[in-house]
Write a structure and sequence with these properties.
The chain is mainly alpha-helical. It has one domain. It has six helices and no strands. The termini are far apart.
C-alpha cells in the first residue's frame, strides 16, 4: 500500500464517478438539441448508479485513510469534512431520480390521453359524477 490514498485506484475511480462522468452526462444532454425519453431514462439511471458507486468508493477510501499514515487522507476522508463529500452523490442521485420521474410522468400523461381517446364512453361516465 502506498503512503497516500490519493495514489490508489479507488481515488481515481472516485474522481471519474464524481466529476468526469456526471459532467460528461450533463454536457451530452446540453449538447443534444433533441433527446429521446429512453435516453433521458437511461442517463437518469446512470446518475443514480453513479451516486451509489460514489458512496461505495467513499466508504472504501475512508477505510484506507484510517489505516494510512498520511494526515491529508484523514483530513479529507475521516474527519467532519468527509460528510461534505457525500453531498455530490446525493446531488447526482437527486438529479437522476428527477430525470426518471420526469420520463415516467410524461409517459403516464400520454397513456392517460391515449386511454381517453380509445375509451370515450368511460370519460363521459367519469365527468358526469
Amino acid at each position: 500500500m502506498s503512503d497516500s490514498i490519493f495514489l490508489e485506484i479507488e481515488f481515481f475511480l472516485l474522481v471519474l464517478f464524481s466529476l468526469i462522468l456526471p459532467i460528461s452526462i450533463y454536457a451530452f444532454m446540453m449538447w443534444k438539441k433533441a433527446i429521446s425519453r429512453k435516453t433521458v431514462l437511461l442517463l437518469g439511471l446512470v446518475m443514480i448508479v453513479t451516486a451509489g458507486v460514489d458512496v461505495f468508493l467513499l466508504q472504501q477510501l475512508k477505510g484506507l485513510a484510517q489505516s494510512s499514515s498520511s494526515i491529508a487522507d484523514d483530513f479529507f476522508f475521516v474527519s467532519e469534512l468527509a460528510v461534505a463529500l457525500y453531498l455530490l452523490p446525493a446531488l447526482f442521485a437527486g438529479i437522476g431520480i428527477n430525470m426518471v420521474s420526469h420520463v415516467l410522468m410524461h409517459h403516464l400523461v400520454d397513456a392517460e390521453r391515449r386511454f381517453d381517446r380509445e375509451h370515450p364512453d368511460r370519460r363521459k361516465l367519469n365527468t358526469s359524477k
